[in-house]
Amino acid sequence: MMMGPAEIATLIPHEGAMSLLSGIWAWDANAISCVASSHQNPANPLRRGGRLHAVCGIEYASQAMAAHGRLAGGIDRRPRAGYLVSVRELVCHVAYLDDLADDIVVDAEKLSGDGMSVIYNFRLGCGDRELLRGRAAVMLDADKA
User: Which of 106, 123, 125, 145 is most buried (most C-beta within 10 Å)?
Assistant: First the structure.
């Protein structure tokens, strides 16, 4: 059964319009698959000049990673904050996300991590089309380190 926005809100530190994921389809110890439709919302808080640039997909992936950390048991509580410390091997195949008529699928695969930091590969797609992909490192509750 797919998890919806209310359940996702309990997993990630984002609130309101900044909670970008619409659902979580599947997850296991190593990966998560989510769906998002917020790219179609003209009030999306990441839009600039009425457009949603493809690099904003990194935030969608970051939220999927945060949800995965809670669901897979690697993080025992909802973190106050996660800090994106690096993105590598980013490839964008589109310039913007707001002109996509269908939902975006957000996939993230955990490569390594502990209670303070994690590294994931991520991919965003729409239908059979890859929109962007890359690798991200995130530090959790970095102010405590």
Answer: 106
Q: How many domains does the chain have?
A: 1
Q: Which of 32, 115, 40, 19 is nearest to 76 (CA)?
A: 115
Give residue-wise pLDDT tens across range 108-142: 999 998 878 889 999 999 999 999 999 999 987 75
Are residues 58 and 65 in contact, defined by beta-carbon separation less than 8 angstroms? no
d(Cα 41, Cα 35) in Å, to the nearest integer? Answer: 14
pLDDT tens-place string over residues 76-95:
555 556 789 999 999 999 99
d(CA 69, CA 107): 13
Q: With 0-12 CB in 10 A as exposed, 13-18 as middle and 19+ as buried, what is 9? A: middle
Taking the C-alpha atoms of residue 39 and residue 84, their distance in angstroms, rounded to an integer, is 21
Q: Which residues touch 107 (CB under 8 Å, ≥6 apart)? A: 31, 32, 33, 34, 64, 122, 123, 124, 125
Alpha-carbon gap, residue 37 to 140, rounded angstroms: 26
What is the CATH classification number for the domain harbouring 80?
Answer: 3.10.129.10
Q: Nearest-5° angle of CA 35, CA 40, CA 45?
A: 95
Domain that holds residue 102: 5-144
